[in-house]
Design goal:
Elements (H helix, E strand, L loop, with lengths): L20 E2 L5 H6 L2 E4 L2 E4 H33 L1 H4 L4 H22 L3 H14 L14 H16 L1 H7 L2 H6 L1 H44 L6 H5 L7 E5 L3 E6 L6 E7 L4 E8 L2
Antiparallel strand pairs: 1-3, 2-3, 4-5, 5-6, 6-7
Helix pairs in contact: 2-4, 4-5, 5-6, 5-9
């Protein structure tokens, strides 16, 4: 069976041409004498076979990456109910992020250059997001980082760059294309660093406000049990001690807290704290 033509108009790729010689048009003896071998029922040279395998692997890897970027937004949609309690900002960011991934995935299936650019941004973000409050407690962070590295490799490898670059650009401005790709990666990382910094400050501010709010609710003389039942385990971590209780908001990477003093039954005081 002959290999699929992934981009029929891109005849600068051997796989998109009528490569090789059909097996029934050349005898085995003639093929062997000319150094050809049978590959998908067509006679090809060793160099042609190597090139065809590389080009097919490149096209298939791009399609797989595109499929992954389509599946991830579906996961976000399915779990949107679990994301929503984290706040409207987080939910909105997840929705926008999912939209970018979906656009990139669909575009990669059609080998569009805009999709490659978005994919570079998305996979670069996978290297940064696990170190932000957004995913700092996610057990899947190592996998996300691994996926980011793999994704960047397969959309930026040499043959993949040729897939997304017009033939004229490849022949006359190959150096400029490489430089452009490097610039895009650098810009993507700078943008991600800026985003992660802004989000970290935002998250820390939320944590500080939540800790202050907890202390404001700790009225002296109030029953400790009634006070503690007002805090959701999804948003706060409660650490009980004999003479005090620490209320730690999960926002702000758990660095802000409200320390509530008590006599075992009633609140005697409260103050905010910060863990370095």
């Amino acid at each position: 069976m002959k290999l699929k033509k992934y981009q029929p108009g891109r005849t600068d790729f051997l796989i998109n041409t009528d490569w090789g010689i059909p097996a029934d048009l050349m005898s085995k003896e003639d093929a062997r004498s000319s150094g050809r071998k049978l590959f998908h029922k067509r006679w090809v040279t060793k160099e042609e076979e190597k090139l065809l395998r590389e080009e097919r692997a490149t096209y298939q890897s791009i399609l797989i990456i595109g499929g992954i970027l389509i599946v991830i937004p579906l996961y976000i949609v399915i779990n949107i109910g679990n994301i929503f309690p984290s706040g409207i900002i987080t939910t909105l960011l997840a929705a926008v992020y999912g939209g970018f991934m979906l656009a990139a995935g669909i575009g990669l299936l059609k080998f569009k250059v805009f999709a490659r650019n978005i994919a570079v941004f998305v996979f670069a973000s996978f290297l940064v997001l696990p170190f932000t409050p957004l995913l700092s407690d996610d057990k899947g962070s190592p996998f996300i980082i691994f996926l980011g590295i793999i994704g960047l490799y397969y959309v930026l490898r040499r043959t993949a760059r040729k897939v997304f670059a017009p033939p004229a650009v490849q022949n006359t401005e190959n150096a400029k294309v490489k430089s452009s790709v490097v610039r895009r990666v650098v810009y993507a990382f700078l943008l991600l660093l800026a985003f992660s910094t802004i989000y970290t400050f935002y998250d820390m501010r939320q944590g500080k406000q939540m800790a202050a709010g907890a202390c404001n609710r700790a009225v002296k003389g109030m029953l400790l049990e009634d006070f503690l039942t007002s805090f959701s385990k999804d948003d706060y971590k409660i650490i009980n001690r004999s003479e005090y209780t620490i209320i730690v908001p999960k926002k702000g990477m758990g660095r802000n807290s409200c320390i509530v003093s008590h006599d075992g039954q009633k609140i005697t005081g409260a103050k905010t704290g910060f863990n370095d």
